[in-house]
Amino acid sequence: MKSVVLKYDGSFPGFLTCVFNAYEQKLEIAEIIPEGEDQKQLFSETLEVITEDFKVQRVLKSLKKKLSSNGFTRLYYSFLSEIPGIELKMYDMIRYVYSSQEKAELDYSHPSVLDISKAAKQVGREKHRMEAFIRFRLTKDDLYFAVIEPDFNVLPVITKHFKSRYADQRWLIYDLKRKLGVHYDLQKAEYVSMELPEDIGISGGNPDYFAEGEIYFQHLWKDYFDSTNIKSRVNMRLHIQHVPKRYWKYLSEKSPFA
Amino acid sequence: MDFDRIKEKLNILADAAKYDVSCSSSGSKRTNTKKGLGDSSGMGICHSYTQDGRCVSLLKILLTNYCIFDCAYCVTRKSNDIKRAAFKVQEVVDLTISFYRRNYIEGLFLSSGIFKSPDHTMERLIRVAKKLREEENFNGYIHLKSIPGASDELMREAGLYADRLSVNIEIPTKSGLKLLAPEKKHEDFMKPMEKVKNEIIQYKSESKLIKSTPKYAPAGQSTQMIVGATGESDRDIMYSSAFFYKNYNMKRVYYSGYVPISNDPRLPALGTQVPMMRENRLYQTDWLMRFYGYDVRELLNNDFQHLEMDIDPKLSYALRNRHLFPVDINKVDKQLLLRVPGIGLKSVNKILQARKFRKLNWEHLKKIGISMNRAKYFITCDAREKELKDVSSENLKQLIIQNSFSKYRKEFTQQLSLF
Fold it and tell me: Relative to the CA of B218, which of A35, A91, B173, B390 has its CA 20 to 30 Å away?
């Protein structure tokens, strides 16, 4: 049988539809790629996959039967990694899980299972880092505002954390890379898309946008950070291992103020 | 808010609090109720790291660094000529809330120098915690210091607002304490610890019967010992540590390499290196005790009083117990698998799962992520392997060290060049 390339809309439901179609039409899959990406296979036919809800639900239901909740989370997290080619590995793992009797999701000697678990771990780590490194700044209209540029698409999985933690304050977290934000209005959290002014920055307290005391708190925090350091124990290698340089831009204690 | 005044106080009182190692913010079960602020039901979060690589999770400050005691090892001791300051209760509350709302911190770690009396100080600490909980509806993490000598009544109250309480034992041996802090009695440290332990047990058993029982210090107790200030052996330290874990249900014991802060002849001189490697080996031993099923007497005893600095304690144990190895990775039970050098907890679980599906070989083990450099001498698996039975432990140790890249390697060569 000739193998095909599936092109989908880039969403998780879109990917699940691919899985449904592949099984239904007994397709041999060469690649699964999101819209806007070029296929690597020269001689395969490309099929456009249109997301359909009943297919999504069917696949979801059977996946949840076949996988533990941790196993399903790992699969979903690995999808959020947006690593090129991850879809095919996910599909390969799904086929392996469907074809075995036992809990094959725990077979770390299977290459796709191990790769998915590694990708999930990377995403989990990025999620945790965002929960740690996001710094809210209080705007003039009482909104706690933060921008991020995470390596992976973690916005969907950090919302719950911030919602249960900051239930009594309005907040907005905006992913600059993916041009998508989450806004919490004291009742519910919703996705928003918007244009941000260039000079709003990642840290600093430009008085055009931010509350009067905002910049002082950033200074207080930096002072605190500096005085809690023990100079005779400095270990910059360990420091950078914990706070890789690409995250410094978020941290007012690490970067000069705008 | 008078920012300049707060700033000055913060600098002084954060600087004085930094020698407390604990910065854990996990293990509590406080959820956000009634749309309040904060939630500490999840895992702990380090919001930043200092340049020395320590986690910054809590706003760690002293309420004041005025102190009536004169403990030689302490930077806020009465006789030390330093700037003193004191926060007002409301100032600490405001600072905590403002930092928390900006996602700088997980909560507050409040300690204090002892002013007037232990009870007077403890009462003030409790007032901060109470205000945060009751007036601000704050569900973030609060760690309070139990002040040695504080009354049972206050310790009972403290646990109702705090997630964790801790008393720092600081000096692992009674004789050391007598030498460096003659005004303090060993019992003063034990009494609040004992009280908190008993309250935790009591509240836990009550909450099984009555659901509405309030939480009492849900993240438990911890303590800290200074390492290298008096001449104690690693065995002394770890035996005290095991004692606290066992008798006081400690969640954590922290080890803090002594940072020289005075010219007192009873202590290591200013400029002496902080014993960071020793501290690291002690933590590794602590982990082996708590998670790997070792009894402290297997790791340290009368014949073996000091940990080896050039290799980790697990490898050291394996080299002293060659008769247990090699083990067959596809058959060995979990308990012994945990004792193989180079295989950590996570890898153990992966191996146990994976070997149900097929016999594992070296390639599988590498991909799972075990440290082959150490492990390969202690295991056999589904592949041809070298027999290493005839190599002596000392030679094996040198072989492993030669092929490994310890972050401490530089220090070994420095140490060797001294002789």
Answer: B173
